[in-house]
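Sequence in, structure out. First:
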Amino acid sequence: MFDFVRKHTKIMMLVMFLLIIPSFVLFGIDGYNRMREKGEAVARVGGHDISQAEWDSAHKSESDRMRASMPNLDAKLLDAPEARYATLERLVRERVLAQAADKFNLTTSDARLARDLQENPTIASLRLPDGKLDMDRYRQLAASQGLTPEGLEARVRRDLSVRQVETGVVASGFSAAAVADVSLNAFFEKREVQVVNFNTSDYASRINPTDAELDAFYKANQSLFQAPEQATIEYLVLDLESVKKNISINEADLRSYYDQNVARLSGKEERRASHILINAAKDAPAAERQKAKARADELLAAARKSPESFADLAKKNSQDTGSAANGGDLEYFARGGMVKPFEDAAFAMKKGDISEVVESDFGYHIIKLTDIKSPKQRSFEELRAAIEADLKTQQAQRKFAETAETFTNGVYEQSDNLKSIADKLKLDIRTANNLTRKPAPGVAGPLANAKFLAAIFGPDAVEKKHNTEAIETAPSQLTAGRITQYSAARTLPFADVRSVVRERVVAARATELAKKEGMEKLAAWKTAPASASMPTAVVVSRDQPQTLPASVLGAALHADTTALPVFAGVDLGAQGYAVVRVNKIVERPAPAEAAAKQDRSQYAQWWTGAENQAYYGLLKERFKAEIMASRPVRAATDLLTATEK
């Protein structure tokens, strides 16, 4: 089919024209896009589908956000099936809560929206020295998220409304101290135990398989001794850096950008102030706040009467323990570094001024502005390199979509080579040897991308040696490749893997012996506890496991202690077997009152989280939420990997 399309391009263009144009006429471009993008449903909430395209888009946004916040994060973790499924679960949760907010008529007022936007530190950083919002930068912030300012505000309003759905459960969660203590005492309970390990490695020397036994195991398990398919490939990577290489910025544009942005590029103005604070919580009774205000008025009068004594007044009267000892000095701060009422007052003052009484959520402030540090304007020469890099990045971001389209079309239309599009876009052809479907340890970038590897080992690339399609292997990065040499998967000869076969046989039989002897000892010791030969006892608990494996610790803590001592057996899989003897229970020592309060608070958080999760479960049932995509199951790895000689 693909060969026919390539050989009859003009005919196919005519057919597509005849098919697509009427669809635009009948449905419109938006309708056509909706038809194309709807895709397969992967989940459903309240009768509304979540498509594969929506899932992909949400995961891309989530991955971009994670990469921005943690640049050193391994990209393979974000591409893992478990990470993608977690994104789908979050998407379903968002839809469930959004439908609940609509159903319960939970809305956000303009005043609540304005307060949230004012308290947002990112938006606060966009304020100009006079306190007004820099609308150009605000629009850029919204655009970076694919939104208009109105769209950004609508999303924040929606998020605030959705948040109210769970607020009733989260805000009202509590746990009685007596109930918490019972649970915590059980959780932190200690037990004195003795553990005997029957390790597989201790039984390996007893196993001496014959050649016939090895040959039989090899023939019965040939899938374990496969050399994976391998390929030597060449590939191209289109990213912002490769686009930047072909961009040059003229001197006039550099000068113009400098003139327009020199103030921003030179840094922020900083101010230094001292203050006297009279504490008054925002939810304190009116009488208490009025009393604090009156005291602040008295201190303001004293400060203005004798400005040079401001530091002494602060030392003696300020209730800000962090700055009072220093005469109220708060050091230098820029916009966004203080609560808004304080910041607005400080940036409206002149050096040496003493403010009126300023009210904030902390109480009442009297501010003295002690210094203003204006940023030194940096010269064009100092900023030239940074400006050029910034402008190249901006132009590369704008040009990338156009170049990406050329790249995508080029690797498809010239499917038998990469040189044509590489020459056209001035890209370097890279090579890789012995590539397999599974990324090699330590490999990063496109060669570790699951989608790219799947395309490289797809039928079209393997059988016909065609280029892969352009694959998005990272944000603003497309990769295409082709196979130049291919080796199919094959079973390795017995002679090449004999040592590996022997190791597997020995390990399997040694494990059987270890478990057999462990289970026999367990039965004997249960019958005659006094005959048990055990090592020194240790005291263990959930927070002090004493290096015990989780399965052994779990067996010790879950053993029925109505009659002590009690024995339990633990299958350790390939590691063998363990027998645990629980001798006695060691009660949890009574914690100090401060520690007890902290533990109860933590328990209350756990309880509230469980209640909230249960409430979400009820909402999922009410709004008929279901996920059709299969939950990924992590594949088990072989104990040993067969390798070529």
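Second:
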Amino acid sequence: MATFLSRLLGLLRSTLLSAFYGATGGEGLADAYTAAFKIPDIVFTLVISGMTSVVLIPYFLKRESNPEDLRRTVSAFINLFLLGLGLLLLVVYFWVPWLIDHVLLTGWTDASLRSTAVDLTRILLIQVLLMSVSSVFGSLLNALQVYRAYSFAMLAYNIGIIVGLAVFSRWWGIHGVTWGVVLGAASHAGIQMVGALRAGWRWRPSLPRRDRELGDLIWNALPRVGALASEQFTRVILVGFGSFLALGSLLIYDNAENLALVSHGLVAASLATTAFPIFLKHWDAGDWPALGESFRDKMRLLILLAIPATFLPGVLRFEVPDLLMGYLRFTEQDVRLTSTTLLLLAPGALFFNVTVLFVRFYYAIRQSWIPLVAALLGVGTTILVTRLEIEVLQVAALGLGRSAGWLLQTAALYFFMARMSQLRPWLLKSLEDLGRLLIMGLIAGLVAELCRAVIPSPFTDKLDSLWRSGVASLVFLSCFAVAGWLLCIPEIRTLATYLSGSRRKTPSRPLSVNK
């Protein structure tokens, strides 16, 4: 629920930024704000993000039975991050102008706009320090299975940014928006610290000790760090390409990506998180048939849920950006550019969702180097396709390159699994499921596209977009369900059977609340 609400707040955040600062009709301030996240994100990914879930959570779990040792260990990592990361961020602070000019925004010729990007990047370095401390608290809460503070912290981050957009920007302009990000990060860390305090944590003046177990965990996490870092480097390269395009291109691509990846936050991330311990259990037991069948079931469910959330934005490529972002300074031209980029980006988002489950599967079977190799292949494909098409497609080339990279990354992950003879039968069945579900999505998408274009609308402007969105969504979901029934998709058949009442124990009355 917190993830869902956080996504809604994220869309509101994008709406306000687009409306207040515009894209092609703006001064490039929204682009500077978008680009300013890239360098801090790389630092956070390399130092913190890849380590916390893979290293800190299992490390804390081993000390759960000794509360005093656990408190000391948590304090030790907080102190380490504050000292070590603080020194690193100080070095990065002085290197930011060079990185902006020679790496990130080489295509910008406006010195004042580059200076603004430098200022915003330096402010966001504070966020990295706050979020690193928060990640330690979050790992502790996950290890203790205390999720309330963790969930509220997710919401607080976006709320802080919205406060920056709605309030701080009136006083300090785009700098106020960035200080809103810092406020969100501080709220994120503060809420999780309160949760940790309520769970019994107390600060201790200590640093981590040398530990072979910790060293092994860090070594196993390095491929994950590499895969995550490759994703951030891809974003940096895309920003570099976008800096040679018209002002507003970075915001347009960022909006299109946010819309295309809604399914990732709502479906893929949650399903992959819950599937991981199941994969791990079957692997530890050496039960290859159960592991293969579990992978196939999870993959089919993931694709089934993700196809409507990825295909519909492609069908409603104009209506969705128009309803969510087409206000004030975000002009109709901006909406149309977002529409074209979204059309090329949405199909690739489906394969990105698939990679999320694959990655968790490979981590469970102790093959963490495979996602790294696949990610690097995807990065190379993204760069090559974007470079070849950017002169023709402009900002839409960023979406095409991204989709091509995700597609090749998924193909590589399937290829490596095909080399495992124990899993090959279930992989072939999974590919068959993928083919059937893609056919369902394509049929439903084509019918919805036809109805969207043919059925007349009694409204104009935003009401017209709302009308077409409703009609196309209803048609798509209906066709998708019928096609799933005809192609014997188990989940759809099961749902239809329960809705018809034929498998209820008491058909004459509704199911109980528990059922």
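Remark: The chain has a mean pLDDT of 86.
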